[in-house]
Structures are given as C-alpha cells and as structure tokens.
Amino acid sequence: MLNLYDTKLIGSCTVSCIFVFATQLSLSLVPRFFSASPLFIKLTLSVFVLLAVVGFGRWCRRLIGVSASAPAFVFFNMFFIWGVYIGVIRYANSRCMDVVFNGVIVMLIIGLCSILSRDPGLVPYGSSDSEELVESSVLGYKADDESSLFLRRIRYCKSCKAYIKGFDHHCPAFGNCIGKNNHVLFMVLLVGFLAAEVSYLVCSSQFARKFQILHRTGFEINLAENLANSTMLFCLLQVLWQGVFLTWHVYCICFNIRTDEWINWKKYPEFQLIVQSSSGEGSAKIRFRNPYDKGILQNVKEFLSLKE
Ligand SMILES: [Zn+2]
C-alpha cells in the first residue's frame, strides 16, 4: 500500500518529468525558428524560454497544488540529454568519446544518488549527541553556550529545520544540505556536471558538423536533429552558469568561508570586527573579518582532509 508520502513523491516526480519534456520541447523551438540567428541571440531566447517555463510551472503549482521535485528535475533532464545522445548524437562520434560521455553520466547518477541520501553533518539540536559534541569541543565552551555552536561552524538550515556541521548552503537541486560530510562530494559533482556538459557539447558539435545541421534552415532539419541543436544550447547555458557557480565555490574554499557565512556574516559574531571611529565616541563600525582564513594552502588542505 502506498502511503501519503509515496503518493506525493510519485506526484511531484511525474510533474518534474512532464516539465522536463515541456522545457526541452519548448527549447527546440528556438533553433527551429531562429536557426540563422547568431549564437548569442539563440542563447538569450533560450533563457527567455526557460524563464517562461519556470513561470508557467509556478502558476501550475498554485493551480493544481502539486509542486515539481527539483532533484527529479535534474535526473530527468540528465536522462533526456542522455536519451538524445544515445538516439541521435552518438553515431557521429568516436568510440573513445562514447566511453567518456557514458562513463561520466553513470558516475553522475551514482554521485547524485549518494548526495541525496548522505547525511550532510546533521546535529540533532538539543539531543544528547549535540551536547556531547559541543562539550567535547577543543574550544572548551559549555554545551549551552551558543557561541560554541558558532565557533564549531554549526549552522541552522531553514529548509531542513536542522543544525548542520560546516553548513555551506541548502541545495534544492541535490535535495540536501551541503555540509561538512558532503561538501567534497558536492564539489566533485559540480565538476562532474561540467565535464558531462562539455563532453556533450563536443559530441553534439561533432554531430552538427558531420550532418551540417547548422547550415540548414530550421524546417529542413528533422525533430531529432533539431533536438540535438536545442540540447546543445541547453548544455551551453548550463556550462556558463555552472562555471560561475563552481568558481564561486572554489573561491569560498580558498578563503575558508561558507556561502551561508558570506551572505549572513552579520548574524555570526566571529565575523564581526568592531572598529571605533577616530572622530568620536559612539560611532563604532562593524567590519567583516574571517577568523577561519589561514592562507589558501592551509584552507584547501583543511577542506580536503575534512578537519574541523
Ligand atoms: Zn538543508
């Protein structure tokens, strides 16, 4: 028998699946009607199409009351791209490229399942576990001392309603918090996604060259070739924003600051440096300082060794 949770999950996965098809088919209109336009125009139009689909999704959620699941959306998009690759693009590529692309996708699926289920560093607040953890702190604070929580970088996630060790941010796409236990896996997945998208771009451009689909007008190419074109645009957009996202996370690791800390540093006392103004009393300013920054090399080492 299915319980309410299962029914809801199946509902949101179905909605996600429908939305992936809606997104990809709407995107395929761009190369069909604007095949002769420059790449920049096609990319801009694709962004508008994606925004329109997201807007429509929000409207549907209000109307039907069932929301899509973000991790399912990621999964189905990946399967869609993989499907287009297997059905259309792979015939134009070398055996070596085929092995690379399929290998990266299989590893991504394993990684995604792992990050969805892995504990990011959960601290049940108020439980004996959390008190023990705080008491055993080398900093010597009492269990009920709130600043010891801050100093051990345990932060609260509003989405999970839980305290997470080494909390970076809540990632809706991976359906989990990113914390001490899965931060490295998160970075590996980011790089994995970029690798999959870049290799897809290489494969699909090889396909486009071989069948000269870029030189034909939108109505001279069939649906399969059209999908090869639109998924290429989709992957190019993904590479662009994920590249920025990855750069940001590398920056954070190099300077030993977490995304949440960077955004909400005014909430955390250890990041605040009170500077008395020389012009007179009562005009103190709060400046940002990072007590965890021990130099790039040490920060990266600490991140990789998962030391506290
Ligand atoms: Zn969370």
TrEMBL record:
Domain annotation Palmitoyltransferase DHHC: ranges: 153-266
GO molecular function, one term: protein-cysteine S-palmitoyltransferase activity
BP terms from Gene Ontology: protein targeting to membrane
UniProt topology in membrane: Multi-pass membrane protein
Transmembrane segments: 9-27, 39-60, 72-93, 99-117, 184-202
Taxonomy, superkingdom: Eukaryota
Keywords: Acyltransferase, Membrane, Transferase, Transmembrane, Transmembrane helix
EC number, UniProt record: 2.3.1.225
Catalytically driven reaction(s): L-cysteinyl-[protein] + hexadecanoyl-CoA = S-hexadecanoyl-L-cysteinyl-[protein] + CoA
Enzyme class: transferase
Protein family according to the UniProt entry: Belongs to the DHHC palmitoyltransferase family.
Note on domains (UniProt): The DHHC domain is required for palmitoyltransferase activity.
Protein's name according to its UniProt entry: S-acyltransferase
Annotated organism of origin: Cephalotus follicularis (Albany pitcher plant)
